[in-house]
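On clarity, I found the account of how folds are encoded harder to follow than it need be. For illustration, here is how one protein appears when written out as sequence plus structure tokens:

:::
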Amino acid sequence: MVYLRLRFWQCLKNKVRFAASIASMSIVNNMKWLRRIFKRHQASIQKSSEMKISPQHAKNMLMMIANTREQELSCDEVHGLLDQYAEMALRGENPAEFLPLVHYHLDMCPDCREEYEALVRMLEGSNEFE
């Protein structure tokens, strides 16, 4: 599973080549394409026995690839803006209006969304003590 995540993120980082080959295919063709890739390496996968992928996980990865945009923020860039985004939300403002790329990243990245939710809980807790 770790290898799959690493490989997936390497492919996303190199999305000029990878996304161009996928962009012209439909979701059904993408699923077939992914299955072919995994079948080719099935022998090596079984030997390492750590890389098991469910159809739902493959579908989620394809949706993430299909939803990539020309302009995106990295996790590091989002972490730098997360405090401002959370404070806007707590003040009742619409942070998605002011920081749309951060909002999009939080929709797509479960790790950053988890960080955001933890930060909001901490800020709400600190507001209770004031």
